[in-house]
Amino acid sequence: MADEECDLTSDVRQSRLPDSLFDELYRDERAGLVRLALLVTGSRAAAEDVVQESFLRLRSTSAELTDPVRYLRRIVLNEARQVLRRREVERRYRTSDPGVVLPPELDEMWRLLAGLPEKRRVALVLRYYEDLSFSEIARLMDCPESTARSLVHRGLKSLRRRLDADFD
Amino acid sequence: MPTLTETEDRLRRALEAVASSVDEPGQPCDQAAAASARSATQLAPGGLSGLRRRSPLLVFAASFLAVLAVGAISVLTMQTESDLEVGGPAGQVPVPDPDTSGLGMDGTYFAFDDPSWTLMVAYTESGSSTYSRYERDDERVDIATGSFASEILDQRPERPETILTLNSNQVTERSFSETGSSSEESSFNWTTSDGLPVIVTFSQANREQALAASTALRPIDSEAWQQLAATAVHTTTPESELRARTGEFGIGGEEGFGEWIRLDAPDAPQMILELGEGIQLPPGHTFDRLIENLPDEPTSQTEDGIMSTLEFHAGCIWTGYWLEAVANKDTTAQAQAQAILDDIPTWPALNASDGSGVIDAWRRNAELAAAGDVQGVLDNLYTNNCTDVVPGE
To answer: Model confidence over A54-90: pLDDT tens digits?
Structure first.
């Protein structure tokens, strides 16, 4: 029964990914990917949609994947970034409520993070939540390493400045 | 102001706290998610295509990426739910009741109420400042409100003579009054009822046309503006059309004021050299090395940021000049350099961007030079990441 419950896309069978590996990826990676998408989009509902769509895309790809986890993470990031770019969807899904009660100082940080430009926000999440190197961030975001460094640096400086402004 | 380390720590904790709200899998299979996915596929008997009908966002995303992939330099008109609600760019956004909308209190939000104009770019900062760009054929209208408008006024003192002044109630009157003229563009400085400025700039100099067009600008509330912003058209810019001036402005603080400049644009070097014309350099020295090292990848910096970089680079060059003078026992050059080193801590752009001890470092540099401490000056240069001017490096 449990196996049947995990059979998500029985009507989509183009993937070269073995079913067992797909199920394993779903079991092991899904929660982490939802967290990542949540931190980028700011919305649990949007994050769930993004990850579901990403798994379906993984399932339907006909490409031979040497690193399906990285591929999956990249799809999630791309989809999540599209969510951020579309303000209408943002308005519908994204709220300043992270879904948990945060201490005031963390709530303030979360709110400030949500106000950052999309690329800076993504770069900061990858750096300070995923603990990725700048080269890995650059690969995931399709940009030069120097740009990844700049995005993280500028994002952090913006947060710092806005924290100070809020304090004042 | 918190330190960078404190900011990093707080950011990590906030991210961890929010992420922890997502359940751990804990089971061989995430039942709830599986059920959700099954439900999606049931809604979509055609597999992925059916699922995508459920998600206009993802349809748009796929379309957008597809267009980018084939290198099309084109405008995308997005058919999304927002279009259905708003009725397309710049058109049928509901007009709020001016007495209850909170305009002015809620920020300054405007729509250009003329369907012949297309909203190309729209963004907001901290809810009280907006920037919108509309285009029609080869015409362009930029609308800057709140702090964006303040910065244009504050940082561009050469512009007031080109700006028309409008003092009116933002909701009910449209009594524009002209105070200047321009051969290149027409601008309106519009002060809202609670004192927030609005700048509207038209790309063409025909005042009558600009004035007539400006009457199509009307205030809307923030939610309507957000709906409208969601319809902004995305464009791509081929490298051959890339220009240093972006038409977008910094928001102050460490980011700086002034227009964002694309450092990778073909005309960026000339523009940067023009910005640096007022900065004194030692005889025979130029900003060539700075220009040579401009990034190739898409990178932007505000005009204030560029000025700060130029002043910093000039400080490095003068310090190198001082070291050379000492090595050559050229007391005249050493004295000339010392006078400049003493002055550097007062340079405006460096002071404006100082947030991490930059001015203190330059002050220390001048003191070390005045004391004849060559090794100290050298050490300070390394500390300041200024080593490209150190002789022999």
So the answer is: 888 887 776 677 788 888 888 898 888 877 766 433 4
The tens digit of pLDDT for each residue in A9-32 reads 333 344 567 778 888 888 888 899
Taking CB atoms and an 8 Å limit, are B2 and A60 in contact across chains? no
Contacts of B230 in chain A (CB under 8 A): 86-91
**Lowest mean per-residue pLDDT among A64-73, A126-135, B90-99, B314-323:** B90-99
Distances from the Cα of B295 to the Cαs of B20, B265, B353, in angstroms?
Answer: 39, 9, 21
Query: Do A98 and B55 make contact, defined as CB atoms within 8 angstroms?
Result: no
Residues A123 and A52 in one domain: no
DSSP B95-148: PPPTTTS-TTTS---EEE--TTSEEEEEEEETTTEEEEEEEETTEEEEEEETHH
Q: Which residue has the tokens 């930029």?
A: B142
How many domains, in total, are found in chain A?
2
User: Tell me, what DSSP letter sits at residue B184?
Assistant: S
| A91 and A13 in a common domain | yes
Residue A31 distance to chain B (closest CA, Å): 6
Shortest CA distance from A38: residue in chain B: B19
Residue A110 shares a structural domain with residue A160 = yes
Q: Where are the domains of chain B?
A: 40-72, 84-229, 245-389
For residues A19 and A40, membership in a common domain is answered with: yes
| Pair A74, A105 in one domain | no
Cβ atoms of residues B151 and B251 within 8 Å: yes
Mean pLDDT score of chain B, rounded to an integer?
A: 61
Residue A128 Cα to chain centre, angstroms: 13
- Rounding to the nearest 10 degrees, give the CA dihedral for residues A145, A151, A157, A163: -140
Chains A, B: CB contacts under 8 A, how many? 190
CB atoms within 10 A of CB B35: 12
CA within 13 Å, CB half, B185: 15
